[in-house]
Structures are given as C-alpha cells and as structure tokens.
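USER: Fancy drafting a protein?

ASSISTANT:
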Amino acid sequence: MRIELIDLDKYPLVVSVQADGTAMVYAPDVCDGIAAELLRNLAMQMEAGHPPYACTPGGRSSDRTEYGPSRLDRNARVWTDSNGRLWNLAVEWRSSGNLRWRWTGGMSEHGVPLMRTGTGALEQPLDVVSALYAPISPVAGFLL
C-alpha cells in the first residue's frame, strides 16, 4: 500500500478517484463553473490523445505497440498519426509561447496536416508543431 499526502493549500483543485470509481473533487476556492470548465478541457485533451483502439483491461491505451500509417478522416476532421494518437483538426491548438494553430485544410507531402498560426506568419506540419512547440493542447475554456 502506498500513501501520499497532498497539500490542499498548494493545489486549487484536486480530483481523486477510488478503485471502485467513486470520485471526489476538492476545490473550495474555485468557482464551480470554472472547475467544471477546466475538467471538460482536460477531458478534451485526454480524448484527443487517445488512440483509435480500446484500452486493454488493466492496462493503458498507450501500452499498445502496433501502429499503422497515419490517416485522415476529412469528414470528422480527425487525423490519426502513425502512433495511433487522434488529433481533432476542427479546433485550434495552443502551443508554447501561446501560439494558436489551426488546420489549413491541406496536407504535407508526407500526409501530415498543415497547421498555420492565427497570424498566418508560420505554417508547419502538425508533427513539427507538436515536436518543436510542445506542449500543445486544444484551445478550450478557462485555466486556473
């Protein structure tokens, strides 16, 4: 058994989930609406990073090592990279330096979505954006 202490004064929002699935949210100084928006944003980030296959019982989705070629579902505006990660191209993505990236609708010669900053000053394939401007996350809601 492992016991960890969490300094609740250090973290404005703490979520704990027991083995039986019972969840508890501790956020006494955070507006419920902002806390809910933050949790929705985290859920979107987790869903965007989930590969297109089911999680294995007792394991994580990232345990899978069989990956195929990247592919684009143009109707859903979702690109699956060669590692199995899903990218929602319908939303803007925020990278380090607070750059915002949006899909141009085009693809690179290697089959990777082309992304452009909001100012249009930079255009890069999504894999390059992810590698050079990490971390990147979908733009949504409020952050604490």
